[in-house]
Amino acid sequence: MALVLGIDGGGTGCRAALADAAGRILGLAEAGPANINTDVDGAAANIMAATRAALARVADAPDPAALTAVLGLAGGTIRPAVARLTALLPFSRIRVVNDGITAARGALGDGDGIMAAIGTGSVYAVQRGGALRQLGGRGFLMGDEGSGAVLGRALLAAAMRAADGFRPMTPLLAAILHEHGGHEGIIGFGNTARPGDFARLAPRVVDGDDPAARAIFDAAVAGLDADIAILQQGARLPVVLTGGLGPAYARRLEGRWPLHPPRGSGLEGAVAMAVALAAGEG
């Protein structure tokens, strides 16, 4: 039985799905992180652990070397990491892409549309006429606009500016300063914090009614709206907002764009791409 493999992997774990040539999922499994930007060897080991566990759930399953695989991974755009990972894996045919690509394929299916995945980080994808293109992202330091990490960083920066008298102090900004021990505490936090640490402050921005929170989120919503307008190129393509903050942005953009729920997950997107690759279409 010819099977294909889809992998969805990131910094917290990876998921594997085995499917037949029609895309019907036969076996699912999970394993540890698969971020090839930080640990190629560890990612390879966890990808194989998830693959073997998924194979164990399928009767008369083939050897991993017989599989056609598409891997949507954090760090999937880094060519040296992709080359090293490919050399470590046994699959007969393999395609490694960024996890934003497989997320977009799952969210949009075969149709034209725009996906914005907004969680700790952020990334866009546009699909037109079957061609899928990823844009944005670039990580916390250089991009990830509108993401939880960037919103959290903006809140901390606003608190310090308010303490300096450059903007009005609000109850939320005063609370942030108190919790972190003032300027020095915020700077110390920023020197060691990872994106996920900043992102833990995001709910206080998107869910609160503090004037500072509203100003930060209003600016983020306006930025997302402007980016979607550019990506539309004058069209009215369906827009799918995914990720942990997707629903919050969707509430603010309702009526502005034709918003649709995602058709599927990133793992389902990886499986669909693996089916196409096996059929010679990928």
UniProtKB/TrEMBL annotation:
Pfam families: BcrAD_BadFG. InterPro entries: ATPase_BadF, ATPase_NBD, Euk-type_GlcNAc_Kinase. This is ATPase. It comes from Paracoccus aestuarii. Signal peptide: none annotated. Residues 5-245 form the ATPase BadF/BadG/BcrA/BcrD type domain.
